[in-house]
Structure formats: C-alpha cells, structure tokens
Amino acid sequence: MDCLLVRIKFNGMFFHHVKLSLRNLIRRWLISGINILGLGFGISCTIVIFLFVQHELSYNRYHENAGTIYRIVNKYSIRDEGLNYSPYQPDELPEGLKQDLPFVEKATSFRRTSIWVSHVSRKYQLNVGFVNPDFLEIFTLVPLAGNLETALEKPQSVILCRNEADMIFPGMAGNYEEMIGQAVEFPQQQPNQFMVTAVIDDQPAN
C-alpha cells in the first residue's frame, strides 16, 4: 500500500507541475516564445555545425588506403600576389618519386579538364581525368564491368563512371559488359578513338 500511495503522489505532483508550466507559458507568452525560439535556434545551429564537421572529416574517407594517400602541392610566389599553391605537377614526377623515395609505393598524376566527346554523331560534355595505371591501385573504385587491373595498360583506354556510361550508351544502359570495347572519340588529332575498358560505380559526393 505504501508503494501505491507514493506512486499516486508522484503522478499528482507531475501533473501539478505540468499545469503550472502551461499557466506560465500562457501568462508570459512573449518571454516563453522568445525562450522557445532561442532554444530551437541553438539546437538547430548545433545540428548544422555537427553535420558540417562530420562532412568535412569524412572527405575521401571511403578509400581503403585513405590514411596513406598524400597529395603534393606546389608552393610558388608571384610578384605583387604573394604565395600561391597549385596541385599540378610535371608528368614525370610520379616515376621520379618511386625511384628516388623507397617509401613511395604508388604514385599517379591527375589532370582534370572539361571536354566534348562523341559517339555515333552525338556529343557530350564531360569532366575527364587523365591518370596513369597506379591511380587504380591507390584509390578505391567499384567496378561494374571490365578488369581494373588491366584497364589502363594500353594507351587510349578510357574508364567510364556509371552516370556517363548510361548517358553515352543509352541503348545499353545498365548492361555495362556490352559497353566494354566500344569506342569514344576525343577532340584531338587522329587517332582520336579511346576504347572503353571498364565501367565503375559513381563516386560518393564527398
């Protein structure tokens, strides 16, 4: 019986405090509204900051070797402009790094540009990255068709992401094995045909 009486008393006190809180909210509606808006704004800011930090810390973390991948940046100065930084390196640098620095296992260059490519008289503007074969071993890519171990062994080979593959070959959308061996024309002097050797899944947004 004692336990039952204590429970009833506790429930009664709880509802009593709820009633008092509601009365204060109604009686002091302006101050209560400001407090509630301030609390909601503070919680919202906290959530936004948390999501921003989480997004920044997750940048490129989906690569299996993320902890051992480094980017080389050039630092140079121009008169009246101060220090400048550039990610572009000489094409010979990757091989030189592997020869001169024994702790460098793999090295690749990466040059990105926007160009028009064509297939069967249709043109598409794509963001294209020019790399060497080590790129496929440094970064984690999910193959949908083709062999990534040999995809860039021959010159003028091209690897397409899922989105670009479906856009260039709409009649084969989803059938990525059929795209292997197809030719895509680049805007350059002959020979300008690049052979599709692999199709990979689209990369995460971050």
Describe this structure in words.
By secondary structure, the chain is an alpha+beta fold. It has helices spanning 2-27, 29-57, 93-100, 135-138, 162-168, 176-179; strands at residues 74-78, 82-86, 110-119, 122-131, 143-146, 157-161, 183-185, 193-200. The strands form 3 sheets. Strands 5, 6, 7 and 8 form a 4-stranded mixed sheet that branches. Strands 1-2 form a two-stranded antiparallel ribbon. The protein contains 6 helices and 8 strands. Helix 1 (2-27) packs across helix 2 (29-57).
* SSE class: alpha+beta
The succession of helices and strands, N to C, reads: HHEEHEEHEEHHEE
Number of strands: 8
Provide the low-confidence segments as ranges. none
Oligomerization state of this entry? single chain
Please tell me how large the radius of gyration is. Answer: 30 Å
Helix content: 25-40%
Characterize the largest beta sheet: strand count, sense, and whether it forms a barrel. Answer: 4 strands, mixed
User: For the residues shown, what is the average pLDDT?
Assistant: 85
Shape category: elongated
Number of helices: 6
Structural descriptors:
24% strand, two-stranded antiparallel ribbon, single chain, alpha+beta, 4-stranded mixed beta sheet, 8 strands, 206 residues, 6 helices
Short description:
With 206 residues, the protein is of the alpha+beta class. It has helices at residues 2-27, 29-57, 93-100, 135-138, 162-168, 176-179; strands at 74-78, 82-86, 110-119, 122-131, 143-146, 157-161, 183-185, 193-200. Helix 1 crosses helix 2 (29-57).
